[in-house]
Design brief:
Blueprint lengths: L1 E2 L9 H11 L3 E5 H10 L5 E5 L6 H9 L3 E4 L2 H9 L9 E5 L4 H10 L3 E3 L2 H10 L4 E5 L26 H10 L3 E6 L8 H18 L5 E3 L17 H19 L4 E4 L3 H4 L3 E13 L2 E6 L8 H5 L5 E4 L11 E7 L20 E4 L6 E5 L20 E5 L2 E6 L4 H6 L3
Parallel strand pairs: 1-15, 2-17, 3-4, 3-10, 4-5, 5-6, 6-7, 7-8, 8-9, 9-10, 12-14
Antiparallel strand pairs: 2-11, 11-12, 11-16, 13-16, 14-15, 17-18
Helix pairs in contact: 6-7, 8-9
This protein binds pyridoxal-5'-phosphate (PLP).
The site of pyridoxal-5'-phosphate (PLP) has 17 residues, from α10.
């Protein structure tokens, strides 16, 4: 059982209440200061490339640009988002990473002259036939994996990601005269230092085999954040040093300078995000209490999909004092017609209770650390419109996405 106590939010309760009054619950809220702080932690890396799929709002991308990061795009939609946010074509600003490339994406990637991080042999053939000398990376499957969940494990024989047969890839790269500029490995989300050394060694070995003058290596993403109080923070210094050693070795082996990239998603945005919801029903079911709020897994799918934990806090509607010495055990659920619409569930879908102070309908329930894979994974399931996103910039409050209307949602079909 997890205890619900106070965790700091970048703005005070009164301000959140006035924000809710203005923009209405439910809503997403982000703190730009937290994002800035996280970026600064990685400043030793030559290039920080934000994996935008974790939080793809154009205004978040603009912030990233202002703070000096480059951007990873995994679809044509994400490329267009990046361009809208001010990242440049004909440059190293955007890299397209995928295991496939569809016709329309291929056309645009060539037109915009955007480097491609290649994850399959078929992609090499497609780009090779259409765009000689195109700048490419290869994403290597090091033939082993890791990750916080089976569904986010991105290496080994059960992974669809990356290139298994680098020898064949190299042959084709030469055949088509493609310009190989970098090697990339992204091995699931989570950091374990012994495992990391294995990844770095694999990178060194692959670079040796390829034996071409490269410009970059990328450590991929996967840096975690402490979702639970007992979760350890990662030691960025150690993480960097392990990779930096690999970089130096590769640079020596290939006799050329190598820049070290990192490609975080979660690490930069997770802690900046909050999902504010309203308690709509306090429901007794036999001896259990279900707290039902006005957001479901159509907004935040991580608990349902991965059994992810999110810290939850309560904001009373009238700013009255809550009694934290008298807690109740509750299950938190959403409005969806779907039994899996429960926020307090584990990986095996087992439901658990958390302790919260006594609440009333109309009080606000806040999910913490939802900046990554929150809004960007949300959907219209149960025909619920997308909810607003609000950015807190020091003392400024900016709406960066308005609420979708039901008419807008239906318009595609009318
Ligand atoms: C998803 C993804 C990332 C970001 O992963 P995080 O765990 O959010 O850091 C980085 N690189 C690639 C290729 C990805 O697919």
């Amino acid at each position: 059982m997890k205890k619900c106590n106070k965790k700091i939010i970048p703005i005070n309760n009164i301000k959140i209440l006035s924000l809710i009054k203005k923009y209405k619950s439910p809503l997403w809220m982000y703190s730009s200061e937290t994002i800035k702080k996280q970026i600064l932690k990685l400043k030793k890396f030559d290039i920080i490339r934000f994996a935008q799929k974790s939080c793809s709002n154009i205004h978040i991308l603009k912030l990233m640009k202002r703070y000096g990061t480059k951007i990873d795009a995994v679809s044509l939609g994400e490329i267009e988002r990046a361009l809208k946010a001010g990242f440049k074509k004909n440059s190293n600003d955007i890299v397209y990473t995928s295991d496939i490339i569809e016709k329309n994406t291929l056309k645009k990637v060539i037109k915009y002259n955007i480097p491609i991080n290649i994850g399959s042999i078929d992609m090499i053939k497609k780009i090779g036939k259409k765009s000689k000398n195109h700048k490419i990376w290869i994403r290597i499957n090091p033939r082993f994996g890791h990750g916080h969940d089976k569904k986010t494990n991105t290496g080994g024989k059960n992974s669809k990601h990356g290139i298994w047969n680098t020898k064949l890839a190299l042959k084709l790269i030469k055949k088509y005269n493609l310009n190989l500029i970098g090697l990339h490995m992204h091995i699931g989300s989570g950091v374990d230092y012994t495992h990391l050394k294995k990844v770095c060694n694999a990178m060194i070995q692959e670079a040796k085999k390829i034996n071409l003058q490269l410009s970059y290596i990328s450590a991929g993403g996967g840096l975690t954040i402490p979702y639970k109080k007992k979760d350890k923070k990662i030691n960025i210094h150690d993480y960097y040093e392990i990779w930096n050693k690999a970089r130096k070795k590769i640079s020596k082996n290939l006799k050329c300078p190598i820049k070290l990239e990192i490609e975080p998603g979660r690490f930069l945005v997770a802690e900046s995000g909050y999902l504010i919801s309203t308690i709509e029903s306090i429901k007794k079911v036999k001896n259990r209490i279900f707290i039902l709020v006005n957001v479901g897994f159509n907004e935040l799918i991580r608990p349902t999909l991965y059994g992810s934990y999110h810290y939850i806090s309560i904001l009373p509607q009238d700013n009255r004092k809550l009694n934290y010495s008298k807690m109740i055990d509750v299950i938190i659920g959403g409005p969806l017609c779907e039994s899996g619409d429960i926020f307090t569930q584990k990986k095996n879908n087992k439901i658990y209770t958390i302790k919260i102070p006594k609440v009333k309908c109309g009080d606000f329930l806040i999910f913490h650390d939802v900046g990554a894979y929150g809004a960007s994974m949300s959907s219209n399931y149960n025909s619920r419109p997308l909810i607003p996103e609000i950015l807190i910039k020091k003392n400024k409050i900016i709406q960066i996405r308005r609420r979708q209307t039901i008419q807008e949602m239906l318009s595609l079909e009318i």
